[in-house]
Amino acid sequence: MKILVINCGSSSLKYQLRDMNNETVMATGLVERIGGEIGRIAHTSRPDGDSPAKRVDELPIADHTEALKLMTDRLLDGVIDSLGEIDAIGHRVVQGGESFSHPVLVDDAVVETIRANIPLAPLHESNTIGIEQARKLFGDVPNVTVFDTEFHLTMPPHAYMYPLPMELYDDLKIRKYGFHGTSHKFVSRAAAEHLGKKPEEVNLITLHLGNGCSMDAVEKGKCVDTTMGLTPLAGLMMGSRCGDIDPAIVPFLAKNKSLSLDEIDALMNHQSGLLGICGMNDMRDVHQAREQGDENAQLAFEMFAYRAKKTVGSFLAVLGTVDALVFTAGVGENDDHLRAKVCEGLAPLGIHIDTEKNAVREPGIREIHAAGSPVKILIVPTNEELEIARSTMAVVNEAAA
Ligand code: ADP
After folding, report:
1. Which architecture characterizes domain 2-154 according to CATH?
2. How distant, in Å, are the alpha carbons of 7, 43, 73 from that of 15?
3. Where, by residue number, does ATP bind (predicted)?
């Protein structure tokens, strides 16, 4: 079975075609600057094979419809002979609201419900455009939606409700939804398997630390709390997002800096986090600057780690017993300094990192805790596209059964 995974951002489109008979990637691509003066499409055939073929083109790409057409042109150029070879399409959808607790086969009603959730994630309207265009372009090929929020719908009300007037939840569905759910689900399942247990037999704290960062408390395979909220701005400090701050800073800025709400929103999303503190949002640059004595880079690193560590502490309290901490995503998988800093001083809470194991760089799942550590510490590379492809295949097979 060949599954195409599509992830439409506001001005980008990521795609991956996978042969699910052996889960190999047949082709992958990224279309960027859609709607800009000059767009870009980078396409790679057989990225994991012996001779990957990469092709990059720069050209105006007016909208997502054109982007999808470019994608199909590239796929038909040596990857597949006809679009009919594609058995199903899996779409990443950021916001499923309270409507979707698992992946679903797309029909008109599903598209309508996703549309109704757009006010909760206005920046991700492109998700629906991707689905609608794919339905047109691929005819009868089944489309499946996989939601970033679905893994978090198991949170109990005392975790997902905000202490705001109840009518805001009743009228506008203001509550914590959480994001990166596909990643947290994938790594929590992989970690359980690595530990030789079923997902429902383990309690985990999963740390997705990339440009965007979030952490989940996973109890017996189900998410019971997460750091992101109504939007992906909440929680941990991130590359350019502030994470949790005193909410009164928003009206304070409006009054004292005469900023509009849109300007404050942009400031918190795009000019804060690591970038706001030291002018760099890539942790590799932050380390380089720290090593050269840049005090703000040092402060940014310490703040990032401190905020993650405090959340580990609070999730330990939420879960009581924890089998493993699971580090994933760009920073979580690659940055031994950061992992060491997050775990520093946590031995009394049962978290003992092994400095040497932590420093080794190897692909795949790795254990980096000291022998006898009551809480294990794992690095589990995330793979959201594979998770979406697996979920898509499961939905399509179930529908056909
Ligand atoms: P996204 O959230 O955009 O999916 P990723 O999970 O790919 O991001 O993470 C990207 C980030 O990972 C980079 O911005 C960088 O900060 C960090 N990163 C990648 N490699 C390393 C490394 N070797 N050491 C430290 N940080 C790294």
Report:
1. 2-Layer Sandwich (3.30)
2. 6, 9, 13
3. 14, 208-212, 282-284, 330-334
SS3 call for 227: coil
The domain segmentation of the chain, as residue ranges, is 2-154, 196-384
Active-site residue flag, 148:
yes
Q: Do domains 2-154 and 196-384 have the same CATH topology?
A: yes
- For the CA of 211, the nearest atom of ligand 1: 2
pLDDT per position as a tens digit, 258-315: 999 999 999 999 999 999 999 999 999 999 999 999 999 999 999 999 999 999 999 9
Q: Is 210 close to ligand 1, i.e. is its CB under 6 Å away?
A: yes
CATH code of the domain occupying 196-384: 3.30.420.40
Mutate to test the pocket of ligand 1, among 211, 214, 290 (most ligand atoms within 8 A of CB): 211
Q: Indicate the pairing of strand 324-328 with strand 204-209.
A: parallel
Vertex 234 angle, CA 222 and 102, to 5° = 35
pTM: 0.93
